[in-house]
Amino acid sequence: MNTTYFLNLVAGNVYKSKTDVPLPTELWIGLSTSAPTINGDNVNEPSGSAGYSRVQLTDLNEPTAGVVTNKNNIDFNESTASWGTVTHFVIYDAKNDGNLLQYGPLSTPRSVETATIMTIKRDYLNLSVQNPS
Questions:
Q1: Are strands 28-32 and 55-56 parallel, antiparallel or unpaired?
Q2: Smallest Cα–Cα separation from 10: which of 25, 24, 30, 26?
Q3: Alpha-helical segments (H) within the chain
Q4: Distance (Å, rounded) from C-alpha 128 to C-alpha 102?
Q5: Which tens digits make up the pLDDT trace of 40-94?
Q6: Is residue 87 a contact partner of residue 32, using CB atoms and an 8 Å limit?
Q7: How distant, in Å, are the alpha carbons of 25, 42, 57, 102, 110 from that of 48?
Q8: Please, are residues 97 and 68 in contact by the beta-carbon 8 Å criterion?
Q9: 28/106 Cα distance (integer angstroms)
């Protein structure tokens, strides 16, 4: 799912009607224990003190039918404490803070306990600039 912010950002830059905020040069994927909303609210990322941090998205496949997937596994840092049950991925334009661009449910929510490495397998991440209807 794309946030309203992201859809307006893409449309403004593609159609040259609002380019004062350029497309992001970096993308960062994170995890959330709650379902985000289209306006970018309700994201609850695990704590950095538990070993959590976002991972930079650098290795994506070329689009096929408007969908981009991850070429390789995306591995998060090993947890040093519980992260709770992660239910969604989130994509931001910055490693910390930033603007929420996209989000979606994980195929299976996962309880991340101490000493766990959370992985999104190759080709499991499906990104598109079109929201499902």
A1: antiparallel
A2: 24
A3: 4-14
A4: 9
A5: 999 999 999 999 999 999 999 999 999 999 999 999 999 999 999 999 999 999 9
A6: yes
A7: 24, 18, 19, 21, 18
A8: no
A9: 16
Predicted structure pTM score: 0.94
Identify whether the C-beta of residue 3 lies closer than 8 Å to the C-beta of residue 16: no
Rounded Cα–Cα distance for residues 30 and 43 (Å): 10
Angle at 40 between CA 70 and CA 111, to 5 degrees: 60
Map residue 111 onto helix, strand or coil: strand
Torsions phi, psi for 22 (to 5 deg): -75, 165
Sheet containing 28-32: order of strands: 55-56, 28-32, 84-92, 100-112
